[in-house]
């Protein structure tokens, strides 16, 4: 295969120059963008301007000059660019864990008298922990779907467990181990037919594959911004609430920023109209600015072009693994349409091999019990870089 020709034909190739250079000359390729995206140069410039002018010069006046509107402004940009969400339904705030707690509690409150939550055994750990914590707090029961770590949850499995006692179902849209893409629309239909509401985790979806929240009838969703959206470590997360639910929406974590009149300072909390009521504390302005720059970069590239390149990169990774890594097993879907933005390869000694690869310039990550994830961020990863990294993996793991 001619990877140079693939790079020459790549419509997104120039975006690699829009990121800060990797200062470590020993890095062959950064293949962990599904855990932490690289920093865009525009983000560095924006943060410098924010600190020196908006904060340094305008100081507290900047709250009235734009800072206070950032959670909704950036949320709308994210919704239109990557999530298939009309304005007024996405807001940027808190961490994924806190956002998930908020929307799950809100979802349960919408279905009083229904004592069960449904999720799967291989959902991301924080999702499972939040579900268990809420169930314990509210005296609910968790119905577990036994999901395949090399795949994910399927609609027929959901249909077997939901019923008139189900309050909410929650799953990851893209499985964190395998990159399996769940059928969001079909699962929503199954849950809704049982009278339940749906809550989706989009951490491995947002910025990697097109998401159609409005079109699929999703009720709630959450996700992070530091992976394919390149907003930086610990950047604020986002949450989505379908517009038809806003009037009955109850936030479990009331705070002054979510009050109808932020500066009323009154004795009683009165929730703001719409999605803003899901805010709690003071917005993370520095983080919001970084999210905005990451989403702007994605908007310029276009989510459909990003998805096309992501599919080509993951397909190449699988082809090279098949050809060069006989002692590894590909543990991600081979069908393009159900594979997200990373490829997992398994090996009995993966826990020791992952640090070896990292020490030799191939930055990957390890996931228990035996998975090495190859994360392929389309805006910052080239075909030649992936080819060189896979060759290094081959050379380092070849039998001696």
From TrEMBL:
Domain (Aminotransferase class V) ranges: 83-363
Single annotated GO MF: kynureninase activity
Enzyme class per UniProt: hydrolase
Highest taxon of source: Bacteria
Catalytic activities: L-kynurenine + H2O = anthranilate + L-alanine + H(+); 3-hydroxy-L-kynurenine + H2O = 3-hydroxyanthranilate + L-alanine + H(+)
EC number(s) from the headed UniProt entry: 3.7.1.3
TM spans (from-to): none
Required cofactor names: pyridoxal 5'-phosphate
Keyword hit for Hydrolase: yes
Pfam families documented for this protein: Aminotran_5
Pathway: Cofactor biosynthesis; NAD(+) biosynthesis; quinolinate from L-kynurenine: step 2/3; Amino-acid degradation; L-kynurenine degradation; L-alanine and anthranilate from L-kynurenine: step 1/1
InterPro entries in the record: Aminotrans_V_dom (IPR000192), Kynureninase (IPR010111), PyrdxlP-dep_Trfase (IPR015424), PyrdxlP-dep_Trfase_major (IPR015421), PyrdxlP-dep_Trfase_small (IPR015422)
Summary of subunit composition and partner proteins: Homodimer.
Family as reported in the entry's similarity comment: Belongs to the kynureninase family.
PANTHER family xrefs: KYNURENINASE
Protein name according to UniProt: Kynureninase
Organism per entry: Kibdelosporangium banguiense
